[in-house]
From TrEMBL, chain A:
CDD domains, per database record: ABC_Carb_Monos_I, ABC_Carb_Monos_II
Domain ABC transporter: 2-243, 257-501
Superkingdom assignment: Bacteria
Keywords (A to Z) from UniProt: ATP-binding, Cell membrane, Membrane, Nucleotide-binding, Sugar transport, Translocase, Transport
Annotated signal sequence range: none
Name of the featured protein: Sugar ABC transporter ATP-binding protein
An annotated Gene Ontology molecular function: ATP binding
InterPro entries reported in the protein's UniProt record: AAA+_ATPase (IPR003593), ABC_carbohydrate_import_ATPase (IPR050107), ABC_transporter-like_ATP-bd (IPR003439), P-loop_NTPase (IPR027417)
Taxonomic lineage from the root: Bacteria, Pseudomonadati, Pseudomonadota, Alphaproteobacteria, Rhodobacterales
Automatic annotation (TrEMBL), chain B:
Name used for this protein in its record: Xylose transport system permease protein XylH
Annotated source species: Paenirhodobacter populi
Keywords assigned by UniProt, alphabetized: Cell inner membrane, Cell membrane, Membrane, Sugar transport, Transmembrane, Transmembrane helix, Transport
Membrane topology: Multi-pass membrane protein
Pfam families: BPD_transp_2 (PF02653)
Main location: membrane
C-alpha cells in the first residue's frame, strides 16, 4: 500500500539514493539494513518527509503523493519513532503524546487536562504501558520513553484515515534483552494497526522481527529477502559486497612494526557506562584499528588517549610513563595528535588561514617569548602545501573554504609537522572522494614508515582491514577480540562482524 | 568584489559617510581642533571598548566594564592621597583580578559570561558604594596634577589622551596580530572545539581575555576620574551601551573570531560622530541612550554569524 518507485536523491558530491524501489504491505514488518553511508537514513528521511526526492514517485494506495515536511507525511499516516528520542523531558507524558495536537482538548484556549489524561491512557494502553500520563517524562526509564514515543506515533490512528506506516530507527540500541523481547512482541501485535519499517545494526534482531529485509549499499537496494530466505553471513556479504583491492589500501606498503618499542599503553581503562577494562598497546610504526558499531566505545578510547575525558579506572602510559591527569595540552606536548571525526567543527578552524591552522597545535615552537614568528609559519605552510599537494591558492587561504580532502590534509599536516608520534585518526576519510581517500591512505603508510603509531577508527570495515597491523574489535565498551592483520593473513569481514554483533 | 568583501569595509564606509553628513550640515564640525577635541573626549570610552573587544572576540561578553570603571574612579579618588602614583598599579591590578574572576566563573563553573560578568559588575558596584560611602569624591587637585596631569594636557593642539589611546591600541593590536595569545584568542573565537582538539588550553585563554577586559576597563576608569578630578559609584553610567556599540559597529560580532581592536577604533569614532551629531541636531543627552540602543540592535542583527547559533533564547 505504501510504495517508492525509482526514488533518487542527490547531495552535492554524493548520489545518496539511486533509483530505489521500496514497498510495504498492510500489517507487514520490513527490515532495512546497510553499512554506514549506505543510504538507510536518507531513505528513511524521504519516507517520513524530511527530505524531498529529486526523482521518482511516492505512492500511497497507488496515488502519487508529495510531502513538503514531516507533518504532511504524518497526516498521511507515516510516523517516525526517533532513535534520539524526541520527547521533551520536562513535559508530562500526556503533553508529549499530544504535542502539537492539543486543540482537541482546548476550550477557549484552556486545556481540559482530564480529557487529555483519559485520551493519553487510551494511547498508552495500545503499547501496554501502565503509567500515570501526568508523570513528568524525565522520570521514565529509557524503555518506557521509547514506548511513549510509539504511543505518540500511534495517535495517528485516530487522526488520519487509511493505513499507518511507522518507522523504528534503531529502537533496540539501548534496551536490554527482556525489553527487546517485549518490544518485538508488542510490534508484532501492533501489526493489526500499522505496518513497520525496522532499522537496526543488529542483524539477528532484524532477521527475527522482519517479514522481508531490504539490503542497501551505496545508495542502492542490493536485494530484498523474505523471511528465512537467507542466513546472516549472506546478508552481510550483500551489505559490504565489493571486492577489496589490495592496491587501494596500500597493502604493499605495509611493513612490520617495531614490536620492541611501545609508544602507548592502556591498562584496565574504564569510564562508567562507556568503556570497561580496555587494555592495549600501540607500537612504533603500528596501525591499530578500533572496530565496532556506533557506541561501542571507539570514540571514548580516542578521547581518553587525547586527554579530553578522564578515565575512572586504569592507567594511560605514554613512552612508559603513567599519565595521571592527561589534558589535550599535555597529550599534545607528549606527542599525541588527534584528527577528529567532525572535521569542520573540531578539525579545522574555519575563518583561520592555512598557516594559522597548521601551527595551532605548536604555537610554542613558532614563537619566542609569546611573539609569533609569522615568517616561519608561512614557510611551514608553503612547504606542506607543496608536499601534500593541498589545493589552496596560498597559505592565506581560509581553511573554511577548502574542500573536505584539503581540509583533512591541513589537519594531518598540523600533526605531522609538529612531530606527533601517536596519531589518533577518527574516520579520517569520511565524506572524502576516492582520490582524497587514497592520499590519506598514503599518508598513513608514510607515518608508519616514520615510526609513528596510529590509532584508527575507520569509515568502513574494508578500510580497517586493509590499513591495519592490528584490529581490536569492541562491543558494548569492551574488547571482544584482537586480530593480527599481517598482509596475506588478514581477517575477513565476516570474522570481524562475528565479534561485532 | 562581492557582498562579503564589502561587508568587511562597512564600518569604514559608515564612518566616512557619517563624517561627511555631519560636516555638510555643520561645516564647523570638520575643523581640526574640533575633531581632535571630540577624539580626546571619547578616549575613556575607547579604552573600555578596547578591552571589551577581547571578551567579545573570544565569543563572550563583559557586562562588568561599566561598573568596573565606576569602582575604579572611587578607588583612585580614595587612594590617590595615600598611594600617589602607585594607585594606578592598584587600579589596573584590581581590574585584572576581577576580570580573572569573571573568566574563572565562566570557564570553571560553566556560568555563561553575560551572567558571570553581570554578577562581578554587581560586586564592583557594591565595592564602589561601600568605599565611597555612596558619595561623590574629589581628588586633591594639586596632587592629581602632579601625578596624572600628563594624562589630560595637550601637546600642541593634540590632547594627550590620544597618545595614550594610540599606545594602548598599538599594544592591543600587537597582542592580537603578533602573539600566541592573540592567535589563541582568534582560534577560541572562531572554532573553540577545534582549538581544544589542537591541545590549546581554552579555559586559560578565556580567563586571560576577561582579565585584559577588566584591566582596560580599569584604565578607562582611572583616566575618567583624572579627567573629572574625582569619582562616584555611578559616574561612568552610560558607558556600557556605547562601548558595546563601538565594538559591534566596528565589526567584531557577538559570535567572535573576526574583527578586532582596529575595528573597535573605527567603531568608537562612529560612536563619537553619532554623539557629536546629536548635539548639532539638538537631541538631548537624556535621549542619547535610546539611539544607542537602536544602533546596537541594528549592529547585532547585521553582524552576527547565524550559522554559529542553533537557537536564540
Amino acid at each position: 500500500m505504501y510504495e517508492l518507485r525509482a526514488v533518487e536523491k542527490k547531495f552535492p558530491g554524493v548520489h545518496a539514493l539511486k533509483s530505489v524501489d521500496f514497498k510495504i504491505a498492510r500489517g507487514e514488518i520490513v527490515g532495512l539494513v546497510g553499512e554506514n553511508g549506505a543510504g538507510k537514513s536518507t531513505l528513511m528521511k524521504v519516507i517520513y518527509g524530511a527530505y524531498q526526492p529529486d526523482g521518482g514517485q511516492i505512492l500511497i494506495d497507488g496515488k502519487a503523493v508529495r510531502f513538503a515536511n514531516p507533518r504532511q507525511a504524518m497526516e498521511k499516516g507515516i510516523g517516525m519513532v526517533f532513535q534520539e528520542q524526541s520527547l521533551i523531558p520536562n513535559l508530562t507524558v500526556m503533553e508529549n503524546i499530544f504535542l502539537g495536537y492539543q486543540e482537541q482538548f482546548t476550550r477557549l484556549g484552556v486545556i481540559d487536562w482530564k480529557a487529555m489524561a483519559a485520551a493519553a491512557r487510551k494511547q498508552l494502553a495500545k503499547v501496554k504501558l501502565d503509567i500515570d500520563p501526568r508523570m513528568v517524562t524525565s522520570a521514565l526509564s529509557f524503555a518506557q520513553r521509547q514506548l511513549v514515543e510509539l504511543a505518540k506515533v500511534l495517535t495517528l490512528e485516530e487522526r488520519v484515515e487509511g493505513d499507518l506506516v511507522i518507522l523504528l530507527d534503531e529502537p533496540t540500541s539501548v534496551l536490554n534483552k527482556e525489553e527487546v523481547a517485549l518490544l518485538f512482541k508488542l510490534v508484532r501485535e501492533l501489526t493489526s494497526r500499522a505496518s513497520f519499517i525496522f532499522v537496526s545494526h543488529r542483524m539477528d534482531e532484524v532477521m527475527d522481527l522482519s517479514d522481508r529485509i531490504y539490503v542497501m549499499k551505496d545508495g542502492q537496494v542490493m536485494d530484498v529477502l523474505a523471511r528465512g530466505q537467507a542466513e546472516a553471513p549472506e546478508i552481510q556479504r550483500k551489505m559490504v559486497g565489493r571486492d577489496i583491492d589490495r592496491e587501494y589500501y596500500r597493502e604493499q606498503k605495509q611493513v612490520p612494526y617495531d614490536a620492541d618499542k611501545v609508544l602507548l599503553e592502556l591498562s584496565g581503562v574504564g569510564i562508567s557506562g562507556r568503556i570497561e577494562d580496555i587494555s592495549l598497546k600501540l607500537h612504533a610504526g603500528e596501525v591499530l584499528c578500533l572496530v565496532g558499531t556506533e557506541g561501542s566505545g571507539r570514540e571514548a578510547i580516542l578521547r581518553t588517549i587525547f586527554g579530553m575525558v578522564q578515565p575512572a579506572e586504569g592507567e594511560v602510559r605514554i613512552d612508559g610513563a603513567v599519565q595521571p591527569r592527561l589534558t589535550p595540552g599535555s597529550a599534545v606536548a607528549r606527542g599525541v595528535g588527534y584528527v577528529p571525526r567532525e572535521r569542520k567543527i573540531e578539525g579545522i578552524v574555519s575563518g583561520m588561514n592555512v598557516y594559522e591552522n597548521m601551527t595551532l597545535s605548536q604555537l610554542g615552537r613558532y614563537s619566542s617569548w609569546g611573539v609569533l614568528a609569522v615568517g616561519r609559519e608561512k614557510a611551514l605552510a608553503r612547504d606542506w602545501i607543496a608536499k601534500l599537494k593541498i589545493k589552496a591558492h596560498s597559505e592565506y587561504a581560509d581553511c573554511g573554504n577548502l574542500s573536505g580532502g584539503n581540509q583533512q590534509k591541513v589537519v594531518l599536516a598540523k600533526w605531522r609537522s609538529g612531530g606527533s608520534r601517536i596519531v589518533l585518526l577518527d574516520h579520517p576519510t569520511r565524506g572524502l572522494d576516492i582520490g582524497a581517500k587514497e592520499d590519506v591512505y598514503d599518508m598513513i603508510r608514510e607515518m608508519s614508515a616514520d615510526g609513528v603509531g596510529v590509532v584508527l577508527v575507520a569509515d568502513t570495515l574494508e578500510e580497517a582491514i586493509g590499513l591495519s597491523h592490528t584490529i581490536v574489535v569492541l562491543k558494548d565498551g569492551a574488547i571482544q577480540h584482537v586480530f593480527d592483520c599481517r598482509p596475506g593473513a588478514k581477517p575477513s569481514l565476516f570474522d570481524l562482524l562475528h565479534h561485532m554483533i | 568584489m562581492n557582498l562579503q568583501q564589502i561587508r568587511q569595509y562597512m564600518p569604514w564606509i559608515a564612518l566616512v559617510v557619517l563624517v561627511a553628513l555631519v560636516g555638510i550640515a555643520n561645516p564647523g564640525f570638520l575643523r581640526p581642533a574640533n575633531l581632535l577635541g571630540l577624539a580626546g573626549d571619547i578616549v575613556p570610552l575607547f579604552i573600555m571598548a578596547l578591552g571589551l573587544t577581547f571578551a567579545i572576540y573570544i565569543g563572550g561578553i563583559d557586562l562588568s566594564v561599566q561598573s568596573m570603571a565606576n569602582m575604579i574612579t572611587v578607588v583612585a579618588s580614595v587612594y590617590l592621597a595615600s598611594l600617589g602614583g602607585w594607585v594606578a598599579v592598584l587600579c589596573v591590578g584590581a581590574g585584572f583580578a576581577l576580570g580573572m574572576l569573571s573568566g574563572f566563573v565562566t570557564t570553571r563553573l560553566f556560568v555563561p559570561s553575560f551572567i558571570s560578568t553581570l554578577a562581578v559588575g554587581g560586586i564592583c558596584f557594591s565595592i564602589a558604594q561601600w568605599l565611597s560611602g555612596n558619595r561623590a569624591l574629589n581628588m586633591d587637585a594639586e596632587q592629581r596634577n602632579a601625578v596624572f596631569g600628563w594624562m589630560i594636557g595637550r601637546t600642541g593642539i593634540i590632547p594627550n589622551e590620544l597618545f595614550i589611546a594610540g599606545a594602548l591600541l598599538a599594544i592591543c593590536l600587537f597582542i592580537e596580530r603578533r602573539t600566541t595569545l592573540g592567535r589563541a584568542f582568534k582560534a577560541v573565537g572562531a572554532g573553540e572545539l577545534a582549538a581544544r582538539a589542537s591541545g590549546i588550553n581554552v579555559a586559560r585563554y578565556k580567563i586571560l581575555a576577561f582579565a585584559i577586559s577588566g584591566a582596560l576597563a580599569a584604565i578607562a576608569g582611572l583616566m575618567f576620574s583624572v579627567k573629572l578630578s574625582g569619582g562616584a559609584p555611578t559616574i561612568a553610567n552610560g558607558f556600557l551601551l556605547p562601548a558595546i556599540v563601538a565594538v559591534l559597529v566596528g565589526g567584531t560580532p557577538l559570535t567572535g573570531g573576526v574583527g578586532g581592536v582596529l575595528n573597535t577604533m573605527i567603531g568608537t569614532l562612529i560612536v563619537a560622530v553619532i554623539r557629536a551629531s546629536m548635539l548639532y541636531f539638538g537631541i538631548e543627552a537624556t535621549q542619547q541612550q535610546m539611539l544607542f540602543g537602536l544602533v546596537l540592535i541594528v549592529a547585532i542583527a547585521t553582524t552576527i554569524d547565524r550559522s554559529k547559533l542553533r537557537t536564540v533564547k
